[in-house]
Amino acid sequence: MENARKRLESKGIRPTYQRMAVLSFLLGNRTHPSVEDIYEELLRDIPTISKTTVYNTLQMLSGNGLVSHLNIFDSQSRYDGFTEPHHHFLCESCGKLIDLMIKCPNAKIGCVMGHKINEVHGYFKGICKDCLKKERRR
Q1: CA 47, CA 62: separation in Å to the nearest integer?
Q2: What is the pTM of this model?
Q3: Mean pLDDT by 10-residue block, N- to C-terminus, for the chain (138 residues)?
Q4: Looking at domain 2-70, does it have CATH number 1.10.10.10?
Q5: Strand order from edge to edge, sheet including 123-126
Q6: Number of other residues whose CB lies within 10 A of the CB of residue 135
Q7: Which of 8, 22, 72, 133 could form a disulfide with 13 if both were Cys (CB 3.0 to 4.6 A apart)?
C-alpha cells in the first residue's frame, strides 16, 4: 500500500484508502483484471466499496498514467498496473492475456511523421504456448 500511496502523491492525487487499494491490487497483479475482477477481489477486504468507486478510480488512475486501460476484448476493458511500454498477447483458446516484452520500432512515444504520440498499444491474438502444448498431447 505504501508504494501505491507514493505513486498517487507523486501525481498530486489524494491517497484515499480505496484508491490505494485499487492501485495496490493492480501493482501486485499481472493478470490484467477487469473492473468486475477488481471489485470482487476488493469487496472481500472492503465490504463497503462499490463497483462505481472502482470504475471511477480506474478512470482517474488511467487518466493520470498510473495504470493502462486495455481494449483488446470487444466487450470488456482490462487494466494493467505495469505501465512500461509493452505489448499484449490474447490467447484465443484459453482467454489469457500475456505481457509481451518485445522491441517494436513503432512503439515510441514522441513524434512520428509530425504527429505527437501520447500512447501506444500493441495487441497480438493467437494461441498461447500452453494451449499449443495441450493440443499436441491429444
Answers
A1: 24
A2: 0.84
A3: 95 96 95 95 96 97 94 86 89 92 71 77 91 86
A4: yes
A5: 97-100, 87-91, 123-126
A6: 10
A7: 8
pLDDT recorded at residue 109? 64
Do 104 and 122 touch, CB atoms closer than 8 A? yes
Residue 21 CB partners (closer than 8 Å, separation 6+): 1, 4, 42, 45, 46, 49
Residue with cell 504520440: 117
pLDDT score recorded for residue 137 = 80
SS3 call for 61: helix
Pick the CATH number of 87-137 from 1.10.287, 3.30.1490, 3.40.50, 3.30.750: 3.30.1490
pLDDT for 108 equals 62
CB 4 within 8 A of CB 15: yes
